[in-house]
Design a protein that fits this description.
heterodimer, A: 766 residues, alpha+beta, Aldehyde Oxidoreductase, domain 4, seven-stranded mixed β-sheet, 19 helices, 25% strand, globular, B: 209 residues, DNA polymerase, domain 1, 33% helix, elongated
C-alpha cells in the first residue's frame, strides 16, 4: 500500500508485550499540549552540548577520504608510497587493504558496490583513506596519493539513462527494478466522464539534505569492543550494520548519538566514513575521527531526486474528480533506492479512476537517500498545481475544488478507513485563519510588484508503530529518569517524552532526566525518520509512566489500607477519593524509600487493524513577485496541520515553520547543478547551492494545528509532523506565484530567470 | 582589525604572505580598505610545519600556544583548546556556524587565521555565559525555542549578540539582514527573529550592556 521500505524498516509487525490494561487515554492534560521550552535547551544554547563533531579523545587521529574526481571511472592503479611517508600519517587504506575489502550498498540482500570500489560510478566515490595526527596532515596525505583512472562514459540525465546506447551504471541496465504502478478503476472511462481535463509536465530539481553538522563519526576500539560517536538519526541501525561488518556481537558495538546536527533522512544509513574510521582505528590502535568536508556532504551523502512528472486530471463541471493519470521519472543516482513520487497524486483526493506510474533510473550521480517525506513534496508540486489549473478551468475557487474531493478512506482497492480523516479540517481551519476568501477578492496589483496567494494540501504515508520499548524510573526523592533509545534529531523528542512523564506522574519537568540514543544504555528503538518518532515512541513512554504509577498505587494501597481503585495520583501525592484524610506524598511511600527506585517498562501497542492513520495538512501563503527582476518575496505562510494531539505546541510550531523553510528551498532556491561536460557537481557549497536564509523565508509565519487526538490510533493520540510540514510548501508557493502573475511556471526552483521568461511568454501570447 | 607584528617572525619589507592572508581572511572590510596589488608582493614563505608562538585572548582569558600559520581560529578553538561551542559547518565562510565576536563584531572563525586573531578580544558562545547562568540572548533563545538541532545555534546566538551590541533595538528587517549570514537548515528562523526581538527589547529596558 505504501512505501514500506522508505525508511529501511522491513518485515512484519513485531510481537509486543502487553501493557498495563488499566491505562486509559487522557481526558484533560495540564502539561501535554502546552508550550514548553526544551529540557536540553541550556546545552544547545550555551555551547555545552557535545555533538559528535565535538568529540575529542586522547591519542585521537584524524581521517580523510580520497574521492574520485570523475563521474564514472575505473581505478587502474593506486600508489600510496609517498602518502605513507608524509608527516603524521599513521594509516593509509584502499580497497586492497585487508579488512577494507567489503561489499556495500545493500538492498534486498544484494550489494550494488564496494566500500572502495574499483569502478567509481559517480563523482566523490571513495578510493582511499588516510589517518594522521592532525586533520590537515590527513588532507595533505590524501593529496599525495597517486591514482591512475580510466575515465568511462557517463550519464547524468534521467531520460537519457533509458536510451539503448546509454552507459550502464549498474549491471543489467539503468532501470531500477520495475516501474511502480498504483491503479484503480478505469482510467479511460474516468476521462470520458470528465467535462474538463487539464494536464502539464512538471519538474523539480535534485535537492540536497545539507544538515548543518557534516556527516561523520569517531571510532574507538577497546580490544574487541567498538565504540562509535556518530551524527546519526538511529544509533541502533548503525550498531546493527557495524556488528555485521566487523563480525561482532551487537553487545560489543556501542553507538552514541546524544546530539546530532540535523539529518532530514541523510543520516539514516550507516556511512562509509564510519566503517572507514573504525577500520583505521583498529589498524592504528588509536581512536579515529572522520568528519566530511562540506563539499563531500553535497556529492555523496544523499539527496532528494529530481523528478519529471506528467499529470492529467479530469473532473465534472461541479468539480468532482473523475480521473488522474500520472507518470513520474526520477533518478536514484548510481545505487539502488527509489525516486517515486506517485503516492500523493494517487491517494490525496477522492477519485475512482487512477493510473500512476513511477520509473526510477540509475545515473552517474550521488545516491539518493530518503529526504523529508521522500517523493511527496515533488508529487505535491505537480498534483497541487494541476488542481489549481483545474480550478481555473472550472472557474472554481481552488479551496472549494479541494473540499469537493475530500477522502475519508485510503483510495486503494481495499479502501480502508482513516482513523482521523482531517484533511477537510486542515483546509477549512487554515483558510479561515489565513483569510482566504478575502485574499481571493483582492483586486490585481497595478504596479510591477504583484501579490498572489496560494494554497496546497498534503498527507504523509508513514503512520509509525511498534516496536518501541521505554523505561521510566522514579527515584525515592520524587525525581524521574526516562530511558529511551530514540534520537532527538532536533524535533524535541526528549522534551515531549519528559512532558508525557510529567503529565502522568506529576513529576515537574525540571526533575526529569532523559537518557537516550545510546545502544549500551538505552532500549532498542527504530531510527528517527518518517515522522514516526512521536507516534511510535510516545505511547511507549506513556505506558512506562503508567507502569510506574501502577506500582506506586499498589504500594500506597498497602500503606493507606485503601483499595487501589479508590486511589489517585495528583502532583506527586496519592489521595483516596472516598476519604480525604487518606493521603501520602510519593516521597513518603515506604516501599519506594526502601527500594530506592521504581521502574516501569512500556511498549508500543500494535496499530489497529483494517484502518489507516496518516497525518494531513494544508498550507497557505502570500507572495510578492517583482515583475521587473523576477524575484519572489514570501510575505506570509500559514500551516494548518492535523498531526493528532499536539504534544508540545512550542516545538510543534517550530517544526511547521522549519518544514516551510525547506519547502521554499525546493520551490524557489535550491538546485543541484551537474555539469553536462564532466558530470561533476558545480555548486557543491553553500554559496552556490542556496539553502534558504532568514531573508528567503516568510516574514510572518502562523501555525494553526487541528489538534484532534486520534485515540483510535494510539494511546497518546499523536501523529507525525516533521515531514508533512514540508509537503505542500513548494506547491503553495507555485500556486501563489501563478496567482500573482496569471501564468504558471512548471519547473522548480522558481528562479528569477524562469519567472521573467514566463512573464515574457505571457506578454507575447497577449 | 589591528594587525600585530610578531616577535618570532618579524615581517619583511612590503607585503608579507601572512599580511596578505590576514587581509583576505579579514573579509570584505579589509578588501574594501584596499590591499595593494599582488604583483609587487615578495611573499615570505612559511613552511606548513613551522610553528609560531601566539597569544589569544578568548572569553577574557589569555591562551599562549604554538600554531601552524595555516591554522584557522576555528581549528585552534576546537581542536587545540577544546572550546567546542563554536561549530564547524562548512569551513569556507558560507554557513556562519563558527561565528565568534572579534572585538564585538561577528566574524566567521573559519575565515580568520589564528595569527590574525592575536591582539583582539575573541568571544565565543561560552563567553556569553555569566558563570553557569545563560546570557540574555541565550535565555531568549531558550524561551522562544529559537533552534532545533542546535548545531548552528552557537553561531546564531553570537551573531545576535553582535547585532544587539551594535544596534540594541533592531527592527525585524534589521534582524533578518543582520543574521542572514547564519544558515539554519532546520529552519528555526521565525523563532530566532522572535528571540532576538525579545532580547533586544530586554536590553533596551535594562539599559544595555
Amino acid at each position: 500500500m505504501t512505501d514500506k521500505h522508505a525508511y529501511h524498516i522491513d518485515g512484519a509487525v513485531p510481537e509486543t508485550p502487553e501493557n498495563d490494561p488499566n491505562a486509559g487515554a487522557w481526558q484533560e492534560t495540564s502539561v501535554v499540549g502546552t508550550r514548553q521550552a526544551r529540557i536540553d535547551a541550556y546545552e544547545r544554547v550555551s555551547g555545552t552540548a557535545v555533538f559528535p563533531h565535538d568529540v575529542s579523545l586522547p591519542e585521537m587521529l584524524h581521517g580523510a577520504i580520497l574521492r574520485c574526481p570523475h563521474a564514472h571511472a575505473n581505478v587502474l592503479e593506486i600508489d600510496t608510497t609517498e602518502a605513507e611517508k608524509m608527516p603524521g600519517v599513521r594509516a593509509v587504506i584502499t580497497g586492497k587493504t585487508a579488512g577494507a575489502d567489503m561489499p556495500w550498498y545493500e538492498r534486498g540482500g544484494r550489494f550494488y558496490g564496494r566500500l572502495f570500489d574499483d569502478e567509481c560510478r559517480h563523482e566523490g566515490e571513495e578510493v582511499a583513506a588516510v589517518a594522521a595526527e592532525t586533520p590537515l596532515q590527513a588532507f595533505d596525505a590524501i593529496r599525495a596519493i597517486k591514482i591512475t583512472y580510466e575515465k568511462l562514459p557517463f550519464v547524468i540525465d534521467e531520460a537519457k539513462a533509458l536510451e539503448p546506447d546509454a552507459p550502464a551504471v549498474q549491471e543489467g541496465g539503468n532501470m531500477v527494478g520495475e516501474p511502480r504502478v498504483r491503479e484503480r478503476g478505469d482510467l479511460a472511462a474516468g476521462f470520458a466522464e470528465a467535462d474538463v481535463v487539464v494536464g502539464r509536465t512538471y519538474r523539480t530539481e535534485c535537492q540536497i539534505h545539507a544538515p548543518m553538522e557534516p556527516h561523520g563519526s569517531v571510532a574507538r576500539w577497546d580490544g574487541n569492543r567498538l565504540t562509535v560517536w556518530d551524527s546519526t538519526q538511529g544509533v541502533f541501525s548503525v550498531q546493527g550494520t557495524l556488528a555485521k561488518v566487523f563480525g561482532l556481537p551487537m553487545s560489543n558495538v556501542r553507538v552514541i548519538g546524544h546530539y546530532m546536527g540535523g539529518g532530514f533522512g541523510a543520516k539514516l544509513e550507516t556511512g562509509k566514513y564510519t566503517v572507514v574510521a573504525a577500520i583505521m582505528a583498529k589498524m592504528t590502535a588509536r581512536p579515529v575521527k572522520i568528519f566530511l568536508p562540506r563539499e563531500d556532504c553535497f556529492t555523496v551523502t544523499g539527496n532528494r531526486p529530481g523528478n519529471t512528472m506528467k499529470i492529467k486530471i479530469g473532473a465534472k463541471s461541479d468539480g468532482t474528480l473523475t480521473a488522474i493519470e500520472y507518470d513520474s521519472l526520477g533518478s536514484t543516482g548510481a545505487y539502488r533506492y527509489n525516486a517515486g513520487t506517485g503516492a500523493l497524486p494517487a491517494y490525496l483526493y477522492q477519485v475512482a479512476n487512477v493510473h500512476a506510474i513511477d520509473t526510477t533510473v540509475y545515473t552517474n550521480a550521488g545516491k539518493a537517500r530518503p529526504m523529508r517525506a521522500p517523493g511527496v513534496p515533488q508529487g505535491a508540486w505537480s498534483l497541487e498545481q494541476a488542481m489549481d489549473d483545474l480550478a481555473a478551468e472550472l472557474e472554481m475557487d481552488p479551496l472549494a475544488l479541494r473540499l469537493k474531493n475530500i477522502p475519508t478512506t485510503l483510495q486503494t482497492e481495499q479502501n480502508p478507513a482513516f482513523t482521523s480523516p482531517h484533511l477537510r479540517a486542515c483546509l477549512e481551519k487554515g483558510a479561515e485563519a489565513f483569510g482566504w476568501a478575502e485574499a481571493m477578492e483582492l483586486a490585481p496589483d497595478e504596479g510591477h510588484l504583484k501579490r498572489g496567494v496560494g494554497l496546497a494540501a498534503g498527507m504523509w504515508f508513514y503512520p509509525g508503530g511498534p516496536p518501541s520499548t521505554v523505561i521510566v524510573k522514579l527515584h525515592a526523592d520524587g525525581s524521574a529518569n526516562l530511558n529511551m533509545g530514540a534520537s532527538d534529531i532536533g524535533t524535541g523528542t526528549k522534551t515531549w517524552a519528559a512532558m508525557i512523564v510529567a503529565e502522568e506522574l506529576g513529576v515537574p519537568l525540571a526533575k526529569i532526566q532523559v537518557e537516550h540514543a545510546d545502544t549500551a544504555t538505552t532500549q532498542y528503538a527504530t531510527s528517527s525518520g518518517g515522522s514516526k518518532t512521536v507516534p511510535s515512541d510516545s505511547p511507549a513512554v506513556l505506558a512506562a509512566a503508567q507502569a510506574v504509577k501502577h506500582q506506586l498505587l499498589a504500594f500506597a494501597s498497602e500503606q493507606l489500607e485503601a483499595p487501589v481503585e479508590d486511589l489517585e495520583l495528583r502532583e506527586l501525592e496519592i489521595v483516596s477519593r472516598s476519604d480525604a484524610e487518606k493521603r501520602v506524598a510519593v516521597t513518603e511511600i515506604e516501599m519506594l524509600g526502601r527500594r530506592g527506585v521504581i521502574m516501569g517498562t512500556g511498549y508500543r501497542d500494535p496499530n489497529p487493524e483494517d484502518t489507516v492513520t496518516f497525518p494531513f495538512c494544508a498550507q497557505f501563503c502570500e507572495v510578492e513577485v517583482n515583475t521587473r527582476t523576477g524575484e519572489i518575496r514570501i510575505l506570509r505562510f500559514l500551516g494548518a496541520h492535523d498531526s493528532g494531539r499536539v504534544l508540545n505546541r512550542l516545538t510543534f510550531d517550530n517544526q511547521v515553520f522549519g518544514g516551510m523553510a525547506m519547502g521554499i528551498g525546493l520551490g524557489v532556491t535550491e538546485e543541484r547543478v551537474l555539469d553536462r561536460q564532466t558530470g561533476k557537481m558545480v555548486n557543491a557549497n553553500f554559496h552556490d547551492y542556496k539553502i534558504p536564509t532568514m531573508l528567503d523565508v516568510a516574514n510572518d509565519h502562523a501555525s494553526h494545528p487541528v489538534d484532534q487526538p486520534d485515540n483510535d490510533f494510539n494511546s497518546t493520540g499523536a501523529k507525525g509532523l516533521g515531514e508533512p510540514a514540508t509537503i505542500p510548501t513548494a506547491a503553495a508557493v507555485g500556486n501563489a506565484v501563478a496567482n500573482a502573475l496569471g501564468v504558471r511556471v512548471t519547473d522548480a526552483p522558481l528562479t528569477p530567470q524562469k519567472i521573467l521568461e514566463a512573464i515574457e511568454s505571457k506578454r507575447k501570447e497577449a | 582589525m589591528a594587525k600585530k607584528k610578531h616577535p618570532h617572525n618579524p615581517p619583511t619589507e612590503g607585503f608579507t604572505r601572512r599580511g596578505f592572508l590576514g587581509s583576505v581572511g579579514a573579509g570584505a572590510a579589509a578588501v574594501a580598505t584596499g590591499v595593494s596589488s599582488r604583483a609587487e608582493a615578495v611573499p615570505e614563505i612559511t613552511e606548513p610545519e613551522e610553528m609560531v608562538q601566539l597569544a589569544l585572548s578568548i572569553n577574557g582569558r589569555l591562551h599562549r600556544l604554538l600554531v601552524e600559520p595555516r591554522w584557522t581560529l576555528l581549528f585552534v578553538l576546537r581542536e587545540r583548546l577544546g572550546i567546542t561551542g563554536t561549530k564547524a559547518g562548512c569551513e569556507r565562510g558560507e554557513c556562519g556556524s563558527c561565528t565568534v565576536l572579534i572585538d564585538d563584531r561577528p566574524q566567521y572563525a573559519c575565515m580568520t587565521l589564528a595569527l590574525e586573531a592575536e591582539g583582539v578580544e575573541i568571544t565565543t558562545v561560552e563567553g556569553l555565559l555569566d558563570g553557569e547562568e545563560l546570557g540574555e540572548v541565550q535565555q531568549a533563545f531558550v524561551e522562544h525555542d529559537a533552534f532545533q538541532c542546535g548545531y548552528c545555534t552557537s553561531g546564531q546566538v553570537v551573531s545576535a549578540e553582535g547585532l544587539l551590541r551594535a544596534n540594541p533595538a533592531p527592527t525585524s528587517d534589521e534582524i533578518r539582514h543582520g543574521m542572514s549570514g547564519n544558515l539554519c537548515r532546520c529552519g528555526a528562523y521565525q523563532h530566532i527573529v522572535n528571540a532576538v526581538t525579545h532580547a533586544g527589547a530586554n536590553r533596551k529596558i535594562g539599559g544595555g550592556s
